[in-house]
């Protein structure tokens, strides 16, 4: 992923909820309610998150 000069504050968050639903957010504000998801079925789900900005990237995996 590449960012142009001036995109220091631009952050892309990609979330895969592990149930076939994946979403992307750009510049999600800390003032907003955050990321919410309701699962339609009971089970164990592998949730992955990838965050990218001009300073680098990071990822996390969580089992729910």
TrEMBL record:
Cited InterPro entries: Ig-like_fold (IPR013783), PKD_dom (IPR000601), PKD_dom_sf (IPR035986), VPS10-sortilin (IPR050310)
GO biological process: post-Golgi vesicle-mediated transport
Pfam name, any one: PKD
One GO CC term, this protein: membrane
The PKD domain, residue ranges: 16-64
Family annotation (SUPFAM superfamilies): PKD domain (SSF49299)
Top-rank taxon, per record: Eukaryota
The protein's name in its UniProt record: PKD domain-containing protein
Organism: Neotoma lepida (Desert woodrat)
């Amino acid at each position: 992923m590449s960012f142009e000069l001036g995109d220091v504050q631009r952050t892309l968050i990609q979330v895969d909820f592990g149930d076939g639903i994946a979403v992307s957010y750009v510049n999600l504000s800390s003032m907003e309610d955050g990321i919410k998801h309701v699962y339609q079925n009971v089970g164990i789900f592998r949730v992955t998150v990838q965050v990218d900005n001009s300073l680098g990237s990071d990822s996390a995996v969580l089992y729910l």
